[in-house]
Request: fold
Amino acid sequence: MAALEEGFTLSAVPLGAGPHGLLGVEQSDRPDQFLVTDGGRTVILYKVSDQKPLGSWSVKQGQVITCPAVCNFQTGEYIVVHDNKVLRIWSNEDVNLDKVFKATLSAEVYRIHSIQGTEPLVLFKEGAVRGLEALLAEPQQKIETVISDEEVIKWTKFFMVFRHPVLIFITEKHRNYFAYVQMFNSCTLSKYTLLLGHEEKSVIQRFTASVDRKVISLMSLSSDGCIYKSLIPIHPNDPEKNQRVVRSLLLKTVVSGNVRNGIALTVLDQDHIAVLGPPLPASKECVSIWNTKFQTLQTSELPQGTSGQLWYYGENLFMLHGKFLTVIPYKCEVSSLAGALGKLKHSQDPGTQTVPHFVNWETSRGYGFGSQNSEQSKRILRRRKIEVSVQPPPSKQLLSTIKKDSEKRIVEELCKFLASKQTPDFHTIIGDIVLELLGRHKVEPSFYPRNALMQLIRTHVLSYSLCPGLMEVALEKTDVQMLQLCLQQFPDIPESVTCACLKIFLSISDDSLQEAEINMESVSDYIDSVQEEKMEEQTEILHNGFNPEEENCDNCDRELNKKPQDTAEETTSCPVIPKRAALLRNAILHSAYSEMFLLPHLKDIPAQHVTIMDWICLLLDANFTVVVMIPEAKRLLLSLYKFVKSQICICSELNKIEVSFRELQKLNQEKNNRELYSIEVLELF
Reply:
């Protein structure tokens, strides 16, 4: 069967601080990008493969986003509703939501739905549905009431069936549940009453659904901890009649029955369901993958708790783990008995922990599991011994060595461990070893196992989220070599840590850098080539003296006059030594970042270190031919041109008064016989 891979933190910023957690996670127009709507004022666009935000937009103070933001797949724009009635539409280029398109609607919106192949649909709290284009053509149009008084929408989902959109939403009134199915190709709305059967006292807490050609399979998680299934026809016999559908038991006691919060479920495919919540009263919260066809189970614990929200897009499970948005990759495989038993070749990694859980086939016949092959399946299951592979712990000998022995002994044992055959859980074991080393360093500050840590980093399996304390220790020790290695290999370093590394690289003395082992990676050749190119091409350079012909800045676009030889020599030299240049170019400038999160930390850099800009100028000069040719750099080059032009204008004005200041300096040098106090009047022409 498919394995639950190790999850990773998508957001380094705490989310879901509001009472309702996250409002939603929605697919963007690109498969690897997702819109995350926080339960307050913010919408963030994330790229999962880079584990970084691409953009963030917020409404004004006092405004509240009331439904998840979605992407209009036909236009690539984003849509959100705040304060229930105010609709906003924007694109990636927009920065301020207060300045984008705005439409105030006449009724309160429950949800906006958007999927590939059709225009977005707006579902109002009273049950009416409008297409986005028709709604924008007349925002104040009257919205009819579809559901009855005291009936409240609890859940909704949007499908495409034979290229026709189908919307289903569930309502609740006095613990009675109703399903509405809206067919847009025939403009029909059907209503169904969900009969609870023998579990009348239970309360339905969560819904999910899948669809095939003719039937919607509605699954519900009730307060008794069981999952029930209802089959709702897409094309009813009598759409005008209130029809009834019966629920049948699908899975029994998937979560603890006494849990009211922190539970969720979502359908993955026709045979797999993901459930969020504690399976037993005393157990920790976890995400569970159920195979409904063969009743097998896979689990992954969430020790920091969750908000009870779960989404599945593009073979990724999204959830809040603690206060951070976490992604767990999971790819559903074709359901088969061999795969369910873990006997399918290449179907499961040896290190994955799988807990098969089988229903009593004799008692499940009444709920749809008693097929003609049930007896044969029962015999197979009773006869075959299920072997559960348990993830092996890290090397006990190595961990015991870390706790008490010297660093030399630890390095010896570590080399033996790294030379052994790697298992699929190798990255987890490496993370445990790093945490053990850092834990001992915290208890014994004099113990700094630098060599062991460097070996572990070079395994290329670590990340910042797996061992955040590692870079903190390196910053504390001013270990620039370790910081450079982390910056080059970790894909998820927060911008605050990147800036902290930048400050270290700029402030450390040249003598200390000369003693450090830095990966130069062709920086020396790069600087030499830049200097040679500048010496050959720079025949005319700026002259800082006063030019009486330049009375204004209109002539700033012309070629600049020559500068004294000493200044020319200064401009062709790199402002930092080669090792510092290697740290800046190969580590800092190559680090992934989000402009929104990076800018606040860059403002904390001391003024004397801002001349890192000289190095960026060298980088642009070295690649100028390439930069000029690529369309993506056009806006950058225009901005740089305007900036440089304005700076030249300022320098030209300053140069005009430079001669006057020189004359003042001469006068000061000539009059050495001044009294203690004097008043002099100088006329400047």
Observations:
- Confidence is low (pLDDT under 50) at residues 343-394, 536-572.
- The first helix runs from residue 132 to 137.
